[in-house]
Amino acid sequence: MTKQPLDGLFESLMAAPQIFKERDTLRHTYIPDELPHREEEIERLGNILFPVLSGSTPSNLFLYGKTGTGKTAVTKYVLNFLLDKIKEISNKSDYALATSFMNCQMVNTNYRVVAYLCDAVGEKVPFTGLPTDEVYSRFKSTLDSEKKLMIIVLDEVDILVKKSGDETLYNLTRINTDLDNSKVCLIGISNDLKFKEYLDPRVLSSLSEEEIVFPPYTAIELIDILKQRAELGFQPNILEEGVINLCAALAAQEHGDARKSLDLLRVAGEIAARKKAEEVTEEHVRIAAISIERDTVAEALRTLPLHPKLILYSVYLLEKHRGSENSITGDVFNVYSELCSVINIDPLTQRRIGDFINELDMLGLINAKNISLGRYGRTKRIKLSIPKKQIQDNLEGDERIGRLSGHVPESF
DNA sequence: TGTCCACTGGAAGGGAGGGCTT
DNA sequence: AAGCCCTCCCTTCCAGTGGACA
Description:
Rossmann fold; Helicase, Ruva Protein, domain 3; 17 helices; alpha/beta
């Protein structure tokens, strides 16, 4: 058999110095045996959920805190602990503990939440077709068919409520009154502190019987977290002095985000491994910071549907041909409509384009600010938030947008 | 000070595509 | 097969608005 080019690649990678011991422990999704600087939160959550061990229903609770402050990790940590404990005493207790953890970024409609819960209790339902009420009552009756205590965790619950309202949440907070054998405990997790304002007061009072606020990590705390993970994930003495401090400092600039600091450390390690370096250096961390940023943007651009891509490309063309002058919604819509006719598709309405402009703003790809031009109306001032080169490189790769490359809109 | 522009953004609803029940 | 119900994506309608201008 002839030698494949990949054989050589793998051989040289194997021969290179080993950087990682256990790479996955450096992912933020990995739950270590200890969570440094979250002892207090673990203890509080443990205290609140402790009644499950004696078969009582704990209070519903709400966890608040910014991204990367350990809400999800602490919750999973405590739930895992409880599940282990329950296993130990299972012969002594006459009920089962079930948990369902869902991220409302994915499970973001009322129907999907209930369907997900059905799945968790072993009730198979189609992803569409049934009335939500029907799916909900199937969930209830399956859950109630045996003695069970179910802890339902709704991570990023604010997304669900903003998108689909709080009807499901309302039903779930009242479900215990309809159950004879089983009980449900709800845990809501949110990084939007203003989220409470959207909630019906009845849901709010029932859901936040207990609340835990997760403060951001300080740079010093991040260093401890990174040291712990580095010990698990990297070969000994592979990190140059200062690497961990730099990762912590960069992440601390953004509200003490442990997730980000771990990503930085892991990607820095991957870069060092690729370069076959003897150790991971501060330079690798800096490259990692740029590469993470670039990859996030490239990924966002690549996965955009066609119409938002065209809108973004219109903003790009406006900036390219009219210099740094800011565009307004009307300009963008005109160029967008023209591009649609060039590639022979029907343009969407200006109303819909307005929504897409807001979405692109939220993704951080453009900056759209409401302004008033006096008697010339109220509109949005729109600027690109990322370099033009990045738009060009990533969008013109799309065959349909590529056809527009070099096109100068007639409106100029 | 009132007018008026060019929108914004909420609300309601249409319809396509999918699937269930009877 | 008919009648429902779901989500998703979109349109239509329209009241509301900030501030330059007459």
